[in-house]
User: Which sequence fits this backbone?
């Protein structure tokens, strides 16, 4: 039971961080995709953040914020946020503008074109990006929990390491893999299918 509770704690942090990253990284990505000066301003920042090793963020945030839930949440968010930002910018720039031009010729408003055409294209392109961000966020969460010893799968692995318990370590690895498979089939794939429905003419 403790293993599943640890898995739930880890996934809870990852889910919350993914939501924050989507709001911040995705929101800034939308602005940068439509406004070139925002894109030019944030480009070096995104490059620096992408180049920072996740291990460095784990150590820095533990020093700044202490070994806490907040430090782990910040670490995951700062690692996957730039990925969602870059993915969103690319999705905006590579969308098919001809569909929007066609809708404009029929007198559809800018907001309606964005909501019904542009946003669907952008979100459908972000499906794989969210999958990658989830997997990376999960790895970062375990690493941060391992270092900070905050409750979660990482803390369980730290306990196994301290006791040199190979069975406990393998059990937690199996839990991590099982958790990722479950999330992929219950959340990520349905999410990607729903986002890609517009390509098949579905709403």
Assistant:
């Amino acid at each position: 039971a403790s293993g599943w509770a640890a898995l739930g704690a880890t996934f809870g942090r990852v889910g919350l961080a993914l939501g924050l990253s989507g709001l911040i990284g995705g929101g800034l990505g939308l602005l940068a995709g439509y406004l070139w000066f925002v894109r030019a301003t944030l480009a070096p920042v995104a490059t620096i953040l992408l180049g920072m090793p996740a291990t460095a963020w784990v150590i820095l945030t533990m020093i700044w914020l202490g070994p806490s839930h907040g430090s782990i949440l910040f670490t995951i968010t700062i690692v996957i946020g730039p990925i969602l930002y870059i993915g969103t910018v690319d999705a905006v720039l590579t969308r098919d503008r001809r569909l929007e031009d066609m809708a404009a010729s029929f007198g559809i408003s800018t907001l309606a074109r964005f909501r019904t055409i542009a946003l669907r294209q952008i979100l459908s392109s972000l499906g794989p990006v969210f999958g990658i961000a989830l997997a990376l966020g999960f790895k970062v969460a375990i690493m941060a929990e391992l270092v900070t010893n905050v409750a979660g799968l990482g803390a369980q692995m730290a306990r196994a390491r301290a006791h040199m318990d190979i069975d406990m370590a393998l059990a937690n690895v199996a839990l991590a893999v099982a958790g990722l498979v479950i999330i992929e089939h219950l959340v990520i794939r349905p999410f990607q299918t729903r986002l890609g429905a517009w390509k098949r003419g579905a709403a």
